[in-house]
Amino acid sequence: MFYLAGADPHEGDRLGRLKLTYDGLLARDRRVFEWAWARRLPLALSMGGGYGHDIATTVQVQMNTFDIAAEYWRRWQNAAR
C-alpha cells in the first residue's frame, strides 16, 4: 500500500483547506497505519505537500507522521518473529 502523507491538510498550510490540527493529522495517520496493520498490508510512506507559512511547522507535521510510521514499523518487526 502506498500512503502519500501530505502536510497540506494542516491548519497552518497556505494551500490546504482542511485546517486539521496536529492532533487531527496524528489521528489521520494512525487510522491509515492501523487499517494497513489490521490487514497485514506492507505500507510505503511518502511525505508530500506542506506549503505552510513557517517551515518549522511543516517539518513538525511530517516528523509526527514519521514517528507514527516508526511505531508501526517496530510493531511489524516484532510480529514477524
Describe this entry's structure for a reader.
Helices cover 52% and strands 12% of the residues. With 81 residues, it is α+β, with helices and mostly antiparallel strands. A two-stranded parallel sheet has the order 1-2. The longest helix is centred in the C-terminal third of the chain and has 25 residues, at 55-79. The two termini are 22 Å apart. The mean pLDDT is 93.
SS summary, helix count: 2
Domains, number: 1
- Quick one: how many beta strands? 2
Instruction: State the end-to-end CA separation.
Output: 22 Å
List the helices and strands and how they pair.
Blueprint: E1 2-6, H1 22-38, E2 44-48, H2 55-79
Parallel strand pairs: 1-2
What's the short version?
With 81 residues, the chain is α+β, with helices and mostly antiparallel strands. The chain contains 2 helices and 2 strands; from the N terminus they run E-H-E-H.
Keywords, please?
81 residues; alpha+beta; two-stranded parallel sheet; 2 helices; 2 strands; elongated
